[in-house]
């Protein structure tokens, strides 16, 4: 864990008067321990990261023990639980021996394992912040009953607050994820021509992301009369002259998400297409210009709405104009009307301006900006204007 994460978690822990954080979601466990379980990703298996200023523990299914050892996860304690059938060689390496010890000492249940981890960290009473993000009501009840010696409070919001301000390493990962998405999109733009289908465009995009060692996000590509769909799943719809093309795409790098929105047109654009694209671009740029430390999320919303309307889309409506982005594609704060949340230096925001007109088409832009001490810095490198395909 980097010093930045320690500082952020410590500050929120102290503000909330907690003795420990317990993370349950993949993102919060990763933030606290740098461990991401494929077992959890596939089967939604229970897992906990316990964080205190004195140390960190992982509580995971026994099947995760080999992955933890192989990845060299640097936590103070690993507690396993549940069944795991395996055999051991006669001569074991230190890592293999550590796996055996963790598996053979496994707890009978996740709740028992969590209690053992707290004891190992010297947390024997007080207030626990339990991330409810990956817990059903029944699981919450079962866990809190087993933690009767503690006062347990929901902590998902507190952990999101800790994650709001990004470290230099996180910003670097976010910028690279965005770079991968933009480079992959450029390859798609180069191959688009009449007759290419949405599925073919999406497949090219995904292969280009993977070629750059990026991780895949849902890929939305819409042509013509499908551009007014908010999240168009790619189909066999073929590109035709005069069609708008809308991309709602992303990529992942080292666990960090990027999101990108761009619009193109096949052949010479109509006056209406140009006007809509220019209004959306004006709104996006006004929103970016309004970003600075101390500005409110609601102020960004107002800037986008007024500029988009003034630039030609007088009836433009939007529930929000973006949000933060990081280990999750959708983080707080949300940029919506009246939101009083104050922006902080080091936050990374996704600003989006989509105009979706059912029966006509859709144009949209989405950029990512870093809040800096003096204002903001854009992380995108691709042009924002309507892309004309020929």
Describe the secondary structure blueprint for this structure.
Layout: H1 3-15, E1 20-23, H2 26-33, H3 38-43, E2 48-52, E3 55-61, H4 65-71, E4 77-81, H5 94-104, H6 110-120, E5 126-130, H7 137-146, E6 150-154, H8 156-163, H9 168-191, H10 198-211, E7 215-216, E8 220-223, E9 244-253, E10 256-266, H11 271-290, H12 297-310, E11 320-324, E12 331-336, E13 348-357, E14 361-371, E15 376-378, E16 387-389
Describe this structure in words.
The chain has two domains: 3-163, Creatine Amidinohydrolase, Chain A, domain 1; 168-389, Alpha-Beta Complex (Creatine Amidinohydrolase), CATH 3.90.230. The longest helix has 24 residues, at 168-191. The protein is of the alpha+beta class and 390 residues long. α9 (168-191) packs across α10. The mean pLDDT is 97. The strands form three sheets. Strands 4-3-2-1-5-6 form a six-stranded mixed beta sheet, sandwiched between helices. Strands 7, 8, 9, 10 and 16 form a five-stranded mixed beta sheet that branches. A five-stranded antiparallel beta sheet has the order 12-11-13-14-15. The N and C termini lie far apart (49 Å). The chain contains twelve helices and 16 strands.
Can you give me a brief rundown of this structure?
With 390 residues, the protein is of the alpha+beta class. The protein has helices spanning 3-15, 26-33, 38-43, 65-71, 94-104, 110-120, 137-146, 156-163, 168-191, 198-211, 271-290, 297-310; strands at residues 20-23, 48-52, 55-61, 77-81, 126-130, 150-154, 215-216, 220-223, 244-253, 256-266, 320-324, 331-336, 348-357, 361-371, 376-378, 387-389.
